[in-house]
Amino acid sequence: MHHPRRKPTTTLAAVAALSLVGVLSACSSGDPAGGGNDAGGDDSTYTWWDPYPQHDDASDWTGRVQACGEEAGVTIERTAYDTTALTNQALLAAQEGTSPDIILLDNPAVSTLADTGILTTVDELGLDVSGVDENLLAAGVVGGETYGIPIGANTLSLYYNADILKEADVDPASITDWASLTEALGKVTDAGSKGITFAGIGTEEGSFQFLPWFWGAGADLRDLDSQEAVEALELWKGWLDEGYAPNSVINNSQNTVWEEFLTGDFAFAENGTWQVNSAAEADFETGIVQLPARDGGVAQAPTGGEFILAPVQEDTARYDVTRQIVECMTTPEGFVETANTFAYYVPPTADGQAALVEENPDLEPWVEAVRNAKGRTSDDLGTDYPVISEALWTAVQNALSGAATPEEALKTAQTEAETATS
Amino acid sequence: MTAIEAPATAGAPPGVGRAPAARRRRRGPAASQWAAVGFAAPLLVYLILFYAYPLARNIDLSVHDYTIRAFVQGNAEFVGFEKYVEVFTSSTFPTALWNTAVFTVVSIVFQYAIGLALAVFFRSGFQLSGVLRAMFLVPWLLPLIVSASTWAWMLNSDNGIVNSVLAAFGAEQINWLTSPDTALVSVIIANIWLGIPFNLVILYSGLQNIPGEVYEAASLDGAGPWKQFWSITFPLLRPVSAITILLGLIYTLKVVDVIWIMTTGGPGDASTTFAIWSYREAFGTGQPDFSPAAAVGNLLILIALVFGFLHLQLQRRQEDS
C-alpha cells in the first residue's frame, strides 16, 4: 500500500520544485527592474523616507519637503514608516539595491547603516557640515567619515510639577547635584506626593534614560563596571528602595513615564523635548531643570533626533539634486522651520539655535540641554553601541528588580559586552 | 481524457482482457498522475514557498554569520554550528531553558485541567450555559495586545487592581512584573487565562462524541459522577486530549507577544523563554542579530517536532491496540 504511493509524491515534489524555481527566478529577475523604477524613478521624481507617519500628505511637514523638491526642480515622493520599521526597510532596500534618494533616520542607527556601505559621505555629496555642533554630528561620524546631517536634535531633561514642589517647599533652582535632588525627593515624599518616575524598561529606551546618570557620574560605556557606573545605578536603586520612585519604573516606557507624570501625582519625571507642548497643556504648572551631574553641573544626556542621509545610488548624476534638497532642509531658516513643525526639534547649528530662541525664548533651556548632550554612538563606539546598550539595560533591570546588586549586575554586563564586541 | 479512460478500464468485465488492461494501467496512471500533479502543483508551490523555503532560510541564517553588513551585501561567512555553540554556552541558555519548560508545562497543565472541568460543567446544558460558554471565549476573541496590556495594568506594582485588592486584605505589595521571583508566574497566569477557551472548545466538542447511553448504563450500574468521569469521560476523551495537549504545547512554546508586552522578557532574563530570546536577538535591540536568533528558533522547531513525533507514535500505538 505504501510503496506505490511513494512514486507520485517524488514526481510531485520534483515538479513542484521546478515550478518553484520558475517562480523564484521570475521574482529575482523582476525585482531589480521593478525596484529600480521605484527608487530611482525618472529624473524628475526623488524618493524620500522618514519616520513621521503622524504627518500625512496634507501636513505642514509634507508641504515643507515638497517645497524643497520644487526648489530643486523635482517632485518628491514621500513615504513614512515608524522608526523600527524604517531601519528594517532601509536594510532590505539596500540588500535589493532599491534605496531611496533620501532617508531620515534615528541617529543611533546611522553608524549601523554606514557600516554596511550603503550611505554616501557628506564629502561625496559635496555638503558643508562645518556649522553643525560637533556633539550632534558625532553620531554620524564613522571611521573619520561623516555620513549625514542631523536635521534637529532633542534630549532629556527633568520635568517638575511646580505645584507639588511649592507645597513641599522645594526650590527647583536648588537642584544642582545628585545629593540635592535626592534631598528634594525626600521632601516631596514626606509631603505626601510621589517622587520621581523614569523609564527602566528592557529596551533601548531604558538605556537612553539611564545614560544621563551614567555619564553624569563620569562613567564610560567601554567600562560598564567602573566605580562611577556602580554609583549611578546605586542612585536609581536607592530611590526605589527609599520609595522615592515606584517599583513599576522597571517596566516603564517613556510614554508610560509621561502618562504617570500627567496624573499630577509625581514631583519629577525624566522625559524629552518632545513633551514640551504636552507639558504646557498639563493641568498643573510644569517646569524643567537640567539633569544634574553627580557633583554638580549639567549631566550629559544622550541626543535623540534624526539624521538626513543619502544612500548610494547607481546613477550618481542624481546626487546633485539630492544635495540641493538636503541643503534646502539644513539652512538656518530650514532648521527653524523644521523645529516649529515638530515643536520639539532643536536646530543642530549655532545659527539655527539663535534663530529659534529669538522666535521662542521658552526653548532656551532645551537649547542648552542639547548643546550639552552627547551622541550614544559617539566616542567611536559606532556599531558596538547597540550591544553595549543591551548589556547596560539588562544590568539596570537586574539591579532595580533585586536580582543582583548594582555591582554584580554591571560586572556581568561588562563581561557580556566585552565578549559580544570583541 | 483521463475521465473517459478511467471508467472504461473500470467498466471492463472482470477477467476479460486482463493483459491489455494491465498494460494500459501502466500507461494510464502516468497520464492521470500528471493530471494529479497539475492539480496539486498550486498547493505544493504554496507549501514550498511559504513553508519549506522559510524553514530552509532559517537554517541557512543559523549556519552563517549574518551581521548587518553581511545581510546587506549578501556575503555572510559560513560558520557551521558556531552560532549554536554560542547559544548553548550563553549565560541566557539555562535560564531560557528552565523558563520555557516551566512556562509550557505549567500553562498546559492548568489550561487543560480548567478547560476540561469547564467542558464537563457545560455538558449538562443548564439554562444560560450557552451564554456563559460564549463568555468564556472572550479571551480568545480579544486581540492579544489588548489582553496582554490589560493584564500588565492589572498586575502593575503600584497602581494595579490586583495589588489594591490584596492591600485591602492587608497583604503587602507584590511586584508582579518587576520582581525576578514573580515575573514568570505573572506571565504564566495571563497565558493560562488566554489558553482556557481553546481547551474548552476542543474538549467540549470531544465530549459531544461520547454517546449518552454509556452514561445511562453507568448510572444504572450505580456509578456516581466522580466514577463516571474517571471511568468513562476521561478514557474516552483520550485521543482528543492528546491532540489538545499537543497543539497547546506547540502554541505555548512559541508564545512571544504576551510575554513581550507584559515584561519584555525581564526584569533581566527572569521571564525570557526561547521564543522571547529569539525575538530579542532579531528585533529587540538596535542591532539585529539574525544568526543566533535563527539558531534559537530552530531549536524551538526541533523541540516541537520531537513532541509531534511522540504524538504520532502514541496515536499509532493506540490504533494498533
Structural overview:
The complex is a heterodimer of chains A (422) and B (321). Chain A has 422 residues and is an alpha/beta fold. Helix content of chain A is 51%, strand content 11%. In chain A, helix 2 (60-71) links the parallel strand 1 and strand 2. Chain A is globular, with a radius of gyration of 25 Å. The model of chain A is unreliable at 1-40 (pLDDT under 50). Chain B is built from 16 helices and 2 strands. The model of chain B is unreliable at 1-22 (pLDDT under 50). Chain B starts with a helix and ends with a helix. Chain B is 76% helix and 1% strand. Chains A and B meet through helix 1, helix 3, helix 4, helix 17 and helix 18 of A and helix 2 and helix 3 of B.
Average of per-residue pLDDT values of chain B: 86
CATH class of the largest domain in chain B: Mainly Alpha
Counting structural domains of chain A, the number is 2
Structure annotation, total helices of chain A: 18
Radius of gyration of chain A, taken over Cα atoms and rounded to an integer in Å:
25 Å
